[in-house]
Amino acid sequence: MSDPPSFDKERFEVELEFVQCLANPWYINIIAQQGYFDGPEFVNYLKYLKYWQRPEYARFVVYPHALAFLDLLQHKSFREEIKRVDEATRIHELQYHHWRWPSYQEDSTAVVPAPSTNGN
Description:
Number of strands: 0
Mean pLDDT: 84
Structural class: mainly alpha
Number of helices: 7
Radius of gyration: 15 Å
Order of helices and strands: HHHHHHH
């Protein structure tokens, strides 16, 4: 069975790889520190990538935290907070505990700051 004519395999693979990189708080921290989240073009690209959360695409994502971080990156407050090394460290530690001990019960709201409602 062949792919539909509009299917771009290379684009699919590149976007999937990027979305999966978002599961790594250190990767997000570095691109935040480099100013990628400061421009409207990249913020719009993050909005565009939300299609990966639809079931027909999400099934290809190996690291589900990537989709959670993609959601959080829609909020300016998170994009600003993740620039800080201490915040990336805190998130990484919580993520580690979640993976290491799946029954680890931590206040789920402690993973990331609540997005502010006064702006994206």
